[in-house]
Amino acid sequence: HENNILASRAEKEVYQRIKEIAPEAVYHERPKMIFIEKQKLKKTKSKILVVSGGTSDIPVAEEAVVTAEALGNSVERLYDVGVAGIHRLLGNLDKLNDAEVIITVAGMEGALASVVGGLVDKPVIAVPTSVGYGANFGGVSALLTMLNSCASGIGVVNIDNGFGAAYLASTINLQIEKARKEG
What are the PurE domain coordinates in residue numbering (predicted)? Predict the structure, then answer.
């Protein structure tokens, strides 16, 4: 059998060249990813939830979504629910609680991961983004906030690493799925 192929950080021109030799290739514009599905994977029953602080975080959030789905996970999105409008996050507690693993994606000061980590009792994978202004320092301020979170159960990946967050979330989610099947 053939393996699926996922390429990240791919410009549209690269996709067009790949499409010539692999017509089944699909381009995901926001995260700049190419997916070639050679083998259909059965989706998990357990869910990964990808949460973004603001709309400018969506390209990195979508990188996480596309990656997690390509790895066979059921994924749900919850976007633009950052701490500047915390009522939007609190109005979606059911979605937070329904997920097995949560990926938070936020720039600026990166407080979203700490808030989510304080609300749930499940793994939270924090992705700082390079978006922001002022003293954002290209995502370093968000990274440091996430690393210094006092909320338990938070793991942090590097700046703009939606792929890495999704791979880790998938590993956790697939283990949960396996444990449920076994008993």
Answer: 46-178
**Tens digits of per-residue pLDDT, 14-26?**
999 999 999 999 9
Is 75 in contact with 68 (CB distance < 8 Å)? yes
Domain span holding position 54: 41-182
Which segments of 31-166 are extended strands (E)?
A: 33-36, 47-52, 74-78, 101-106, 124-128, 154-156
76 neighbors 99 (Cβ within 8 angstroms): yes
Banded model confidence at residue 76, pLDDT cuts 50, 70, 90: very high
Residue 132: other Cβ atoms inside 10 A: 23
Assign residue 153 a region (left: φ > 0; alpha: ψ between -120 and 50; beta: otherwise). Answer: left
Instruction: Examine the domain organization and report whether 22 and 92 are in the same domain.
Output: no
CA distance 72 to 44: 6
The reply to whether 117 and 61 lie within a common domain is yes
Per-residue burial over 83-95, b if 16 or more Cβ lie within 10 Å, else e, is beeeeebeeeeeb
- Please state the pTM of the whole predicted model: 0.95
Is 7 strand, coil or helix? strand
